[in-house]
Amino acid sequence: MTVPREATELTTGLPDAYRRWRSSRLGQITDALEERLIVELVGPPLGRRILDVGCGDAALAVALAKRGAIVTRVDAGPRMLAAGRARAEASGVAVQLLQGDVRALAFPDGSFDVVLAVTVLCFVDDAARAVGEMGRVLRPSGRLLIGELGRWSLWAAKRRVSGWLGSRVWRKAAFRSAHALKGLVTGAGLAVTGVHGAVYYPPLGPMAALLAGCDAWIGKGTTAGAAFLVVEGRKPA
């Protein structure tokens, strides 16, 4: 599969950025909350065929594989795939890693039980087409989980400012509201079955440490104020 040049260029410097993020107090707390929410929404993963789409160093894919899921991961950037492969090997789990374009997934219809796209659509220039592909490769009654930074959060605002100041990673990022994410899901022919939130604090390490213990409790009651939004969709049977 031919991967667009702009996609590989965008992810060129990300492995180093991921290492810095994972080593920070803010990153460790925030990643743990986001992973907990996604794993909870996936449900019992044993034996499930899961596709993890997009940017990342395979932390979520490895976490699910450790729990018995059959995980395939697709990314546009060869360096990100190398980082993911190293993480999987160090963890002693099997994760299939493939280079590809989320807008043209190289899998037959109905290949997966669950498709995950976590903080990837903000980088895709044709998000509707990408979500349509995710829906296509889901089996009937399969579930799609899209996790993104909410458009109106301080986290998204900080990244927009970084883009204005010259960051190549965030310059073209498009952040969406829950309403817009739901529109992408329904536009792909899936039914929206839930909207969930996490990370109810600003992008500051001390605030994360102070408020992380309340995060799951707040998320059970509202998504207002959540920096991380997850829209859940289901493919019709």
Descriptive terms for the model:
globular, Rossmann fold, 7 strands, single chain, 237 residues
Question: What does it look like?
Answer:
This protein is an alpha/beta fold. The chain is globular and about 45 Å long. It has one domain (5-234): 3-Layer(aba) Sandwich (Rossmann fold). Residues 1-13 have low confidence and may be disordered. Helix content is 43%, strand content 21%. Helix 5 (78-91) links the parallel strand 2 (70-75) and strand 3 (95-99). Helix 2 packs across helix 3 (25-42), helix 3 (25-42) runs parallel beside helix 9 (205-219) and helix 4 (59-66) packs parallel to helix 5 (78-91). Strands 3-2-1-4-5-7-6 form a 7-stranded mixed β-sheet, sandwiched between helices. It has helices at residues 5-10, 14-23, 25-42, 59-66, 78-91, 127-137, 154-164, 178-187, 205-219, and strands at residues 49-53, 70-75, 95-99, 112-118, 138-149, 191-198, 228-234.
